[in-house]
Amino acid sequence: MTKFGDFAPLCHQVPSYPWCNLFYRQLQHRDPTALTNLSSDATSAPVGINPECGIPRVGHDSSLANIANIVACGLSILVTLLLVFWTNRRRAAVGRVEFQIFLVLYFLTIPFQLISTGSFLEQGTTALTVITAIHAGLVTATFWALLGNAIVSTQVVEDGTMSSLVPFHFFVVAFFAATTYISLDVGFSFTTVFQSTPPASQNSIALFVLTSIWPAAAAILYLVIMTYVVLGMLNEVRPMWYYVLAAILFVLSQLDYFLLSKVICKGANSKIDGSFVATILETAAVAVLYFAWRSITEESWEEDIYYPR
After folding, report:
1. Is 306 inside a domain boundary?
2. Quick one: which of 62, 130, 254, 264 is 20 to 30 A from 245 by CA?
């Protein structure tokens, strides 16, 4: 029976689900007999735990690694760098520093995603476990930065000041540190607190909440707060369509990842999966958020000349 916090169904059904790397390491040391079929040989095992379909590690069965997602990640890196550059140019815009931090954090998640899901490194290795743990920490910190931007947009505290930046940075560090430590503990079993019982269930309530519940909750809260800011405070309608479009793109990325990825994997004979589509849609959502932010702060800019006080 599946319990709350069980990763076993996800690691079995969803190709390239990165947090499974942590449980692979744990199972190797606690219950290696639970690793069967595609996961039985760590040198060629794809991302996942006994997955129904997975991309073999590069160099095995003519595998080119998760090549489609590698290309998507490369394009996402370029797009995100461009967004960071554009954001930096709008020096008078409200929430510029906070939004730029969000973009930088999202940018950092991309190379870690590329490695943790790319079928480059051997399953169960220290390197893959550490990279996956850092990836998890960056993801939760990024979603805090997203929610933090919504809070800053309400102007409860003045953006760009110490009263805004100190708590903003504190929670970025807190989410990153807490999630990274928990992820490392799941993978390396430093303590028994985050160990799965039984090991085959791949259960970790803390990790599940941080990597699944928290991102969804942060995204929903962000949309609710920005709806209030745009419709209630600014009394505008046009910018709201950007936020609606970003939400649709994000939801579609998750539907693709969790529902269609296995279908694409099987249809492509384990050469690619749906992770590349999810990456493209997520980056598109971030780009739309930039244009949404731009649309509600444009009157704060001086496009050609900036007059300091």
Report:
1. no
2. 264
Phi-psi region of 89 (alpha: psi -120 to 50; beta: other; left: phi over 0): alpha
User: What is the domain extent for residue 112?
Assistant: 8-299
Pick from 230, 293, 288: nearest CA to 90 = 293
- Report how far residue 223's alpha carbon sits from residue 59's, in angstroms, rounded to the nearest whole number: 43
- My answer on whether omega of the bond before 198 falls inside 30° of 0, hence cis, is yes
**What Å distances lie between residue 152 and 104, 120, 226, 253, CA to CA?**
17, 39, 10, 26
How far apart CA 129 and CA 16 sit, in angstroms, is 14
Q: Tell me: the pLDDT tens digits for 45-98? A: 999 999 999 999 999 988 899 999 999 999 999 999 999 999 999 887 888 999
DSSP conformational letter for 211: I
Split into its structural domains, the chain has a count of 1
Q: In the structure encoding, which two tokens stand for residue 255, read together?
A: 């539907």
Does residue 23 form part of some domain? yes
pLDDT tens digits, 89-112:
988 788 899 999 999 999 999 999
- CATH code (residue 234): 1.20.1070.10
Please name the residues in contact with 65: beta carbons below 8 A apart, sequence gap of 6 or more: 55, 57, 58, 118, 119, 120
Q: Which phi and psi angles does 203 have, rounded to 5°? A: -100, 130
Tokens at residue 140, please? 């939760």
C-alpha pair distances (Å), 184 with each of 13, 60, 181: 23, 28, 5
> Quick check: is 111 in a domain?
yes
